[in-house]
Write a structure and sequence with these properties.
This protein is α+β, with helices and mostly antiparallel strands. The protein folds into five domains: 36 residues, no CATH class; 147 residues, Alpha-Beta Complex (Penicillin-binding protein 2a (Domain 2)), CATH 3.90.1310.10; 332 residues, DD-peptidase/beta-lactamase superfamily (Beta-lactamase, 3-Layer(aba) Sandwich), CATH 3.40.710.10; 52 residues, no CATH class; 77 residues, Trypsin Inhibitor V, Chain A (2-Layer Sandwich), CATH 3.30.10. The protein is 30% helix and 23% strand. It contains 22 helices and 31 strands. Strands 4, 5, 6, 7, 12, 19 and 20 form a seven-stranded mixed β-sheet that branches. It has a five-stranded antiparallel β-sheet with strand order 14-13-23-22-21, sandwiched between helices. Helix 3 packs antiparallel against helix 4. The protein is globular and about 130 Å long.
Length: 720
């Protein structure tokens, strides 16, 4: 026995000595084996970039969610005082079915049918993107074996909001089991690579449970978060559009609606939406149409095209509004062009013809200036080619220019096709003194890892098809379609604001055969308008296809409800002073930059304004609103200086003014709601740092000024 055990001892001793001397065992390096056993690599996930509006308000961002896992192996409970694997399949399936979109029977099947030896199972799409509420409900049941892994989910806080522009992104798993967020449509898809960023990693040594060993070194390659995209979209104006479209959709159930709102001075798209629409988080409402129709599809514009025909005639000095012509019919090359009432209105002036939207008047204008010269202007206005907007798959439309009859029908918006982007771009030339502005929707793109701006878009001129004088003449003419006795745009008049615009009614090609659809409501109704008419600050194009009209209604009724709601609310939000007789007196704001704050405050108070100081005082660096803005007396003027800021009383402030204060002050102001300020979390006079949040609560005027219900008395009941 002594020899046996002694021999084994010397054999073991020799083996240990050999390993120490060579560092190898079974032909493998021991150091490498140890490194492989204890080395760990942890992925540092990059945050997907945000998409925000022009004021920095979130439109799309990552938020915390949870992934559900059910542990089935009994090994998980070894050496544990608590059960760490699923023990009650029935109860577990019942609880999960109440909180995730999966039937109890399917959950139970997944738990019980797992192969022998399976350590854990997941629940596919139903088990991912679990909200905090569902997570909390399941955790409260303390189900053995049910664990959660923190995950990220794309969050769209505004619901149905420019959904075909923004698109959506969702978590997807590749063949290797890696889960990433992938943009599927809209900006989320176009800028998927820039938004996604690059994951980092951390290398460290751990014990067998994966816990980092003391004093072990960490090697970190930091994650590079995705770029942040700021749009030209204004969240408040976009909400006005969405609310108006919801209302008209509910009342008229049109087959299609499109709206674009643009700043004609810059080409910035401030709102863009369509119906049908969908919720980007749930995809509820998403059909087989994935196109942003304002950019990717074409329409026959109808009579809205006439504003460009008249603009061309004016530029060629062929427009004489007091001349008369015979309305009703115009025969050319064997074809007959008719006015929309077929018989016309007898001999009328060209001015009245435009106000009545006469097709025949366009035919006589083409006689005067030449149809080929007219087509040159149409191309100068950008029709027939892409605008170059920073969105994918833009259509170019098609100009019919082979035969004289095609050029004639183009003059009143039939035959040739256009996009909504081409229409608003062309209209900016009329609104902007002849200078046409290229539309764009990306304001800037920022790298959050170093705060550098990688793309900063500026307004871009896209030609000058007409002179400033002609543009002014056209605006004056467009205003008469709203104010004149015969104008087709009378129902589009705005409360307190002048408006210029043109109605349109276009035929719809028959999808089941040759020709066009006919019958009540089977048309594409539209309005392209700008306000205030003398100096337009907003330009809005509204299209409604095949609304279900009530008895006595016409196609322009739903269009007018949509347009007037959007424009009136937007102009008030932008602090554009109304022009009606009841409007308060307005004054032009001076430039106070570079002046001493005390002097500027005194001047503003003397002029009837309410100055608000941002900073401790001294030299004024910037102001809002900018110089030469037209403001009503009593309006707030923000003056920015260096130093810490005493909080004002925000009560009654508009959302736009609060956002401007936030931008100038750099304070962490968090806004809840829409409308005007009713509450603030910190009181007036508080001095705070940039890292301390202030919560501002807003309410719409309809809630703030809601009348109290009158108490019923015996007298009131008898009298009623």
């Amino acid at each position: 026995m002594f020899l046996v055990y002694g021999g084994l001892f010397f054999l073991l001793f020799g083996r240990v000595l050999y390993i120490q001397a060579t560092g190898e065992a079974e032909g493998k390096a021991m150091a490498s084996m140890a490194e492989a056993k204890y080395a760990r690599e942890s992925t540092l996930t990059a945050d997907r970039g945000t998409i925000s509006d022009r004021n920095g308000e979130l439109i799309a961002a990552d938020t915390l969610s949870y992934r559900l896992i059910a542990v089935l192996s009994e090994k998980a409970s070894v050496d544990s005082k608590k059960q760490r694997h699923v023990t009650d399949f029935e109860k577990t399936a019942a609880v999960l079915a109440e909180n995730i979109p999966m039937e109890k029977e399917e959950i139970l099947s997944r738990l019980t049918d797992a192969k022998k030896g399976t350590y854990q199972v997941e629940f596919g799409k139903a088990g991912r993107d679990i909200s905090y509420g569902a997570f909390r409900n399941i955790k409260e049941q303390e189900l053995p074996g049910i664990i959660f892994v923190e995950d990220k989910k794309r969050f769209y806080p505004n619901g149905v909001f420019a959904s075909y522009l923004i698109g959506f992104a969702q978590r997807e798993e590749d063949a290797d089991g890696n889960v990433t967020t992938v943009g599927k449509m809209g900006l989320e898809s176009v800028y998927n690579k820039q938004l996604n960023g690059t994951d980092g990693k951390m290398n460290f040594k751990s014990d067998k449970w994966g816990i980092m060993l003391p004093k072990s070194e960490k090697k970190i390659v930091p994650a590079q978060d995705g770029y942040n995209i700021q749009l030209t979209i204004d969240k408040t104006i976009q909400n006005f559009v969405e609310d108006a479209m919801n209302s008209v959709e509910k009342e008229y159930s049109p087959k299609k609606m499109l709206v674009v709102v643009v700043n004609p001075k810059t080409g910035e798209i401030q709102a863009m939406s369509q119906r049908p629409a969908f919720h980007p988080s749930t995809r509820v409402g998403l059909t087989d149409n994935w196109l942003n129709q304002a950019v990717e599809t074409t329409i026959e514009p109808g009579s809205t095209m006439k504003m460009f025909t008249v603009a061309a005639a004016m530029e060629e000095n062929k427009w004489t509004p007091t001349d008369f012509y015979k309305s009703g019919q115009y025969k050319v090359y064997g074809d007959t062009v008719r006015d929309h009432n077929q018989t016309g209105w007898g001999y009328i002036s060209f001015l009245e013809g435009f106000q009545r939207s006469s097709n025949v008047s366009m035919a006589y204008l083409l006689e005067r200036m030449g149809d080929k010269k007219f087509m040159e202007y149409i191309r100068d206005f950008g029709f027939g080619e892409k605008t170059g907007i920073d969105l994918p798959h833009e259509a170019s439309g098609r100009l019919l220019d082979t035969y004289p009859i095609e050029r004639l029908t183009t003059s009143f918006g039939q035959g040739s096709t256009v996009t909504l982007m081409q229409m608003v771009q062309a209209a900016t030339a009329i609104a902007n003194d002849g200078v046409m502005m290229k539309p764009y929707v990306i304001d800037k793109i920022t790298n959050p890892n170093n705060d550098k701006v990688v793309q900063d878009k500026k307004p871009e001129e896209h030609g000058q098809p007409i002179s400033a004088g002609t543009a002014k003449q056209v605006r004056e003419l467009l205003a008469t379609t709203v104010t004149s006795e015969h104008g087709t745009g009378k129902k589009f008049a705005l409360n307190g604001y002048t408006l210029g615009g043109k109605t349109g009614t276009a035929e719809i090609p028959n999808p089941n055969g040759p020709g066009y659809l006919s019958g009540n409501g089977n048309y594409l109704y539209s309005f392209l308008g700008m306000a205030p008419a003398e100096d337009p600050q907003l330009l809005t194009y509204v299209v409604v296809q095949q609304p279900k009209l009530k008895v006595g209604e016409i196609g322009s009724d739903p269009v007018a409800k949509l347009f007037t709601s959007i424009m009136e609310n937007s102009l008030k939000y932008m602090n554009i002073v109304p022009n009606d007789e009841d409007a308060v007196e307005a004054s032009v704001l001076d430039d106070f930059t570079g002046e001493a704050s005390s002097k500027a405050i005194n001047r503003l108070q003397q002029d009837g304004f309410s100055p608000i100081l941002i900073g401790k005082g001294g030299k004024i660096n910037s102001q809002y609103p900018q110089k030469e803005s037209k403001l009503s007396l009593g309006s707030i003027v923000l003056l920015h200086t260096e130093g810490q800021t005493n909080l004002p009383d925000f009560t009654g402030w508009s959302k736009k003014m609060v956002l401007s204060f936030k931008l100038l002050s750099g304070l962490d102001i968090r806004i809840n709601g829409e409308g005007y300020v009713t509450e603030q979390s910190l009181s007036k006079g508080t001095v705070i740092g940039a890292d301390e949040p202030i919560v501002i609560q807003l309410q719409p005027p309809s809630i703030i000024h809601k009348p109290k219900e009158e108490e019923l008395t015996e007298e009131s009941i008898v009298g009623g």
